[in-house]
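Appendix B, record 7
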Amino acid sequence: MTDLTEMIKWNYKETKNFFDTRAIGTDIPETKIYIDSLIGSTQTVDIRSKNEHHELMQELTSTQCFIIIDGPSNSGKSTFARRLANAINAEIVDIDLLCYDYLQNRIDKCKTDMEVLMAYHNIDQETDEFILNNLEDIIAEKAKKGKTVILVGMYLEPIYRCILARTLGKYFKRTVSLFCLEYCFGEIQKMQRSRANEFGGKTMPGEIEKLHRQYMLAKEFASMEDGKILAAGVDSSYLVNTTVSNWYSK
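Structure tokens (predicted):
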């Protein structure tokens, strides 16, 4: 078994590779050791639909923060991130946009239709490798400029949230978790229909079932050890939803 003191020395790529190659790290002893080492006194505060955004805003603007926004698909994460970034003058690192830009650069370099097809065929693996190799450098560079950074675009199991908190949060004065979770799955369905209408109103087979599984898993994560798992490795942890997102709609 790998010793915790050794794991703490690893960077983002090394740590994620370690747990990735062990079936997402769900059943190995190192997972519990790594997570437990980051669980402290921080509690997850539920501010969904509560008028507590002024206190949160004060916290996010008082010092340089690393803000992790995650949650199940179709929970308004990217919209929330954009509104919050405008309100607190932060920079967004959006995983989906990084992958899109990478794909565009790959396509631009293709000289034949076959090369384009191969680029699309391999894009999932290539973008995963791109994020793995470059995410820490991207975050660290923005931190050097004194920026508050919002990371969005990942739906993270507890071990991966802890990896981010430990390996990327170290570049900032404060790390904050904002976990997007609606009160009921019906709100997720509404947002899914709205998004589908933007693309012709079609829903992919099995999409609702997949969203529901993610939503239920997110509820499970949020309740683990009374919210302490969500708060592992961060200075502040909050449950938010689209109502909170609307506070930053200006």
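Remarks on this record: The chain has one domain: 4-94+148-246. The domain at 4-94+148-246 is CATH 3.40.50.300 (Rossmann fold).
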